[in-house]
Design goal:
- The protein is mostly helical.
- It has one domain.
- Helices cover about 80% and strands about 0% of the residues.
- Helix 1 packs parallel to helix 2.
- The protein is elongated.
Length: about 150
């Protein structure tokens, strides 16, 4: 019974850390959708996407270069997601720093809804990092416990 509880806890923690890492994919995906919406003049926008891609739209005035920049910036976040899923703590940390810097753009233009959604995503990423640390501690503690089969009487 104790083993089942430990396994369930481990699975819950592992799923939580992977959910945190998946925020990077959402950010990248929403940024690409925002670019498509911008290029097609729909007027729609997802505040969870990168604010910097909106800046590139202004700089490059709605041409192919802004789309390329969005793909590059989104690709960086996909990379952070991939590395965070593999368990690289630096990907969580550097990705959060980049997204916090992006949130500053929302402060500058007084887009508080975008800022709030950035905060939710940052919290989700941070939660994933925290759960990953817990998973490492569980793994380290299991390595220290003697295996019942290996103990001879």
């Amino acid at each position: 019974m104790e083993d089942e509880k430990a396994i369930a806890t481990r699975i819950r923690i592992e799923n939580g850390y992977k959910n945190g890492a998946s925020w990077f994919y959402w950010i990248a995906g929403m940024s690409i959708l925002n670019e498509i919406f911008y290029q097609t003049h729909t007027g729609w926008i997802f505040a969870i996407g990168l604010g910097i891609t909106q800046v590139t739209n202004v700089i490059f005035q709605n041409n192919g270069m802004s789309f390329i920049m969005t793909l590059i910036l989104s690709g960086i976040f996909v990379f952070f997601g991939k590395m965070a899923h593999k368990g690289y703590r630096w990907a969580f940390i550097i990705g959060m720093i980049f997204y916090i810097l992006d949130a500053i753009l929302f402060i500058m233009v007084k887009d508080y809804m975008g800022l709030g959604l950035h905060g939710i995503a940052i919290f989700g990423i941070y939660r994933g990092l925290r759960l990953y640390k817990q998973l490492i501690e569980i793994n380290n503690n299991q390595d220290l416990k003697p295996n019942e089969e290996s103990v001879s009487v």
